[in-house]
TrEMBL record:
Cofactor field: Mn(2+); Fe(2+); Co(2+); a divalent metal cation
Active site: 36, 176
GO biological process: carbohydrate metabolic process; pentose-phosphate shunt
Phylogenetic placement of the source organism: Eukaryota, Metazoa, Ecdysozoa, Arthropoda, Crustacea
Keyword line: Carbohydrate metabolism, Cobalt, Isomerase, Manganese, Metal-binding, Zinc
This protein's name: Ribulose-phosphate 3-epimerase
Domain of life assignment: Eukaryota
Note accompanying the cofactor annotation: Binds 1 divalent metal cation per subunit.
EC number: 5.1.3.1
Pfam entry (one): Ribul_P_3_epim
Keyword hit for Isomerase: yes
Source species of the chain: Notodromas monacha
UniProt: a divalent metal cation binding residues: 34, 36, 68, 176
Length: 220
């Protein structure tokens, strides 16, 4: 069976001390790190790119890096992100719809895991053919409008999760946005096994306790 994994998003961390924030999350028992890359074009916000990812790789050599690429040209950063030490490259369907299969193949060739994300307004049906291709390791169902941390969880995205889970029992389904101890049960019940959580973990008084608690609730 699929194991539940908790991946802190460092978007709302102390970005001036990102290396230590990554170390702190790994020391707190994170299963992986979810790194939010924004280009100010696909989303109305800016974060960081591959040079920063490369430096972070030096700080936490063993952490699994899930790159959430909120960028308009996902083709452009596959090579640089691989060089920087990314483990999974999650692009947005909306940014790649002209050549989704080509992009997925390209990422696969690098040896990175392939993730495809959909924004709240994107219908789940459009990605089903892609999932049939066997190229996709992870489907990311956004539970907020991408761009900012600390937004409210959209529970009405859960039918997307269940629709995919009923058809693909073994694929990783990741949820991202507003997820915390109070709604992780809903996500897991719908079929999500990769749980991204930013604010709820980063701003927690005891991140290890929060991660442990969320994992326990989700695995239940
Ligand atoms: C939103 C990002 C998410 C988000 C997670 O664009 O993709 O990763 O920041 O943070 P919280 O859990 O605070 O919503
Ligand atoms: Zn994200």
């Amino acid at each position: 069976d699929l194991q539940v994994k908790i991946g802190p998003s460092i978007l709302n961390a102390d970005l001036g001390d990102l290396g230590n924030e990554c170390v702190r999350m790994m020391d707190s028992g994170a299963d992986y790190l979810h790194l939010d890359v924004m280009d100010g074009h696909f989303v109305p916000n800016l974060t960081f790119g591959h040079p920063v990812v490369k430096c972070l790789r030096g700080k936490v050599p063993k952490a699994f890096f899930d790159l959430h690429m909120m960028v308009s040209n996902p083709h452009a950063w596959v090579g640089p992100m691989q060089d920087a030490g990314a483990d999974q490259y999650t692009f947005h369907y909306e940014a790649a719809s002209d050549d989704v299969l080509g992009l997925a193949r390209r990422i696969k060739e690098t040896g990175m895991k392939v993730g495809v994300g959909v924004k709240p307004a994107t219908d789940v049906d459009v990605i089903l053919p892609l999932l049939n291709s066997d190229l996709i390791d992870t489907v990311l169902i956004m539970t907020v409008e991408p761009g900012f941390g600390g937004q409210r969880f959209m529970e009405d995205m859960m039918p997307k999760v269940s629709a995919i889970r009923s058809r693909f029992p073994l694929i990783n389904i990741e949820v991202d946005g507003g997820v915390g101890p109070n709604n992780v049960d809903v996500c897991a019940e719908a079929g999500a096994n990769m749980i991204v959580s930013g604010t709820a973990i980063i701003k927690s008084d005891d991140p290890s306790q929060t991660i442990r608690h969320m994992r326990a609730v989700a695995q239940d």
